[in-house]
Structures are given as structure tokens and as C-alpha cells.
């Protein structure tokens, strides 16, 4: 395995994550998820040996990160943090080109092969029209993609990205996620990235690392999702103290939308009602009689008349 964590405690003075045993290999895409504050960024910084582990070992390409210099780590791992300092007086092309300078002294000029590769990265990220723009004039989304481009130009076998789809619209999120998966599969790179938008990102990942209650669960994406019911079934938030919900039998999305609609619009006890979603319609049982509604407006009218 290219990346291995063995009995590792992650944190500062006290562990945020205990006893981590996880691994990933080249050619795999891993998705790191968990609530804010559980230790996702701390885990990333520990892999980079920016924060020492409290216990256990982390190895990259068969070597303990404790034994690697900063340059050696950079040669093995490219990284994109969600908050990065924007260099002054740089264009987008300049920023992407910086990824090449882990291989050369700063005073070297890039060769034609390097320049060609940089242009290809800019094209793949759909940034060609902005390549000569100063970084300060880029949108947050295009700036984020430019930093990703710098990591790609580094040509390291492993890439870590902390929230790479932040600030991106749906189309650009998919562009980035497709590109990361293509890189993993065609160039045999290990990609590990964190995301709050994990419902979209899961479609592109081979493995999930899920952090909860000081523990990290790792495995094939679908195994982790099936094994953690809270990930697939969103919480139905209750904020209306006068609202008592009805019985609802429906797929997750329809159930969530009905619950939201009823709670916002009715401060009353609806526990005597029974809703079932079938063939695109809501079947509603009221006092042993059945009604059928095709929209939330029809449901609202029915409840208003009933009560």
C-alpha cells in the first residue's frame, strides 16, 4: 500500500482520532468525510508530517513520514488546502507553473515539455480564457481550480485536497471530480480529498474514510455508506414545537420534503394522518378514508379543510 496508517492517534495534546488503521494504494480515489471539528484537516496535516502523530505510524511509499524531509514529502504528495495564500503579481499560468518547481531550483526556466503539460492542465480545468489573468481578478471558483492545477503540475504520485469543490458550482464540481478520478485511473495516482458535498463526491470515490466519535471507519464507499445509516438517512429537523408529524412512508427525498413542508406550514398535531408516496402521488388516509394528492398545494388544501 502506498499510504498506510497503523494504530495511529491523530491530534494535538489529546487525540481527535484514535487507533487509526487505514490504507490506500495508487490508482484509488478516497473521500474523507465527517462533521466540522472532528479532525479531517488535522489528519491531512499529520499525513504531511506538519503535525506529529501522538501514537503509531504513518508511512508513504514504504517510508515513515517522520524520516522524510519536506522536499521528499513534496515529491510524493501534492496538496491543496481550502484556504491558501494568493501570491501577489502572479497570473493563473504562473500559479500552475509553480507546481513544477519542486523539481528545479527557483531560478531555472521550464522546458517546452513542462510548458506544454501546464497548458494541458489549464485546458482540462476549463481555464484557458483566464490563463493570463492576475490571480486577484479570478472568481473564488476559478482561483480554487488554479490551485488544483498547481498540484496537478507537481506530478506527485499522491494528491491530497482539502475541500477542493468549495466555491464551485455544480458543473465545475463535476469537472473537478471527473478529472481527479481520471487522473487516478489513467496516471495511477492516489487521490485523497475531503468534502462537505459528499453526496455528489461519493459517486467518484473508491473508498471512504469516515470520522465520527474519535474513530475513523475506512473501506469501499458503498460498504461504509450501508454500514452507517446516518449518512444515507438525513435527520428530519424539528424546530416547530406545536407540530406533531404524521406517519410518512416514502423514499428519503420525498419524506424529507413533505416533513419540511408540513412543519413550516402547520402548527398542529397531524399524528392521525398517514401519508404514503406511490407512483408520483401522495396517498393520504384521513378517518379511514383515502385521498390522493399530486402536489404540496393540494396537500395543504386538504389539511386546511380537514382541520
From TrEMBL:
InterPro entries: AAA+_ATPase, ABC_transporter-like_ATP-bd, Metal_Ion_Import_ABC, P-loop_NTPase. Signal peptide: none annotated. The lineage of its organism: Bacteria, Pseudomonadati, Bacteroidota, Flavobacteriia, Flavobacteriales. Residues 5-238 form the ABC transporter domain. This is ABC transporter ATP-binding protein. One of its GO terms (molecular function) is ATP binding. It comes from the Bacteria. Keywords: ATP-binding, Nucleotide-binding, Transport. PROSITE patterns: ABC_TRANSPORTER_2. It holds the Pfam family ABC_tran.
Amino acid at each position: 500500500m502506498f499510504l498506510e496508517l497503523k494504530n495511529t492517534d491523530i491530534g494535538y495534546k489529546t487525540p481527535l482520532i484514535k487507533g487509526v488503521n487505514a490504507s490506500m494504494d495508487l490508482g484509488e480515489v478516497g473521500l474523507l468525510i465527517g462533521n466540522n471539528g472532528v479532525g479531517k484537516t488535522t489528519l491531512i496535516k499529520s499525513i504531511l508530517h506538519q503535525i506529529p502523530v501522538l501514537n503509531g505510524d504513518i508511512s508513504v511509499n514504504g517510508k515513515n513520514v517522520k524520516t522524510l524531509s519536506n522536499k521528499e514529502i513534496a515529491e510524493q504528495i501534492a496538496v491543496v488546502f481550502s484556504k491558501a495564500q494568493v501570491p501577489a503579481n502572479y497570473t493563473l499560468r504562473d500559479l500552475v507553473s509553480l507546481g513544477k518547481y519542486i523539481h528545479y531550483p527557483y531560478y531555472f526556466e521550464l522546458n517546452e515539455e513542462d510548458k506544454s503539460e501546464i497548458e494541458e492542465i489549464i485546458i482540462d480545468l476549463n481555464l484557458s480564457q483566464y490563463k493570463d489573468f492576475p490571480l486577484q481578478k479570478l472568481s473564488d471558483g476559478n482561483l480554487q481550480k488554479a490551485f488544483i492545477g498547481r498540484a496537478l503540475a507537481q506530478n506527485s504520485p499522491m494528491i491530497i485536497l482539502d475541500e477542493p469543490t468549495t466555491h464551485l458550482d455544480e458543473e465545475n464540481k463535476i469537472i473537478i471530480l471527473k478529472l481527479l478520478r481520471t487522473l487516478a485511473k489513467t496516471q495511477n495516482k492516489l487521490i485523497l480529498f475531503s468534502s462537505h458535498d459528499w453526496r455528489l463526491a461519493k459517486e467518484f470515490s473508491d473508498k471512504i474514510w469516515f470520522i465520527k466519535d474519535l474513530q475513523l471507519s475506512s473501506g469501499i464507499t458503498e460498504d461504509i455508506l450501508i454500514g452507517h445509516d446516518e449518512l444515507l438517512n438525513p435527520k428530519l429537523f424539528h424546530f416547530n414545537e406545536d407540530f406533531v408529524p404524521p406517519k410518512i412512508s416514502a423514499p428519503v427525498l420525498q419524506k424529507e420534503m413533505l416533513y419540511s413542508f408540513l412543519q413550516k406550514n402547520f402548527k398542529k398535531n397531524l399524528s392521525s394522518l398517514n401519508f404514503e408516496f406511490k407512483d408520483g402521488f401522495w396517498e393520504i388516509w384521513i378517518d379511514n378514508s383515502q385521498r390522493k394528492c399530486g402536489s404540496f398545494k393540494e396537500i395543504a388544501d386538504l389539511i386546511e379543510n380537514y382541520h
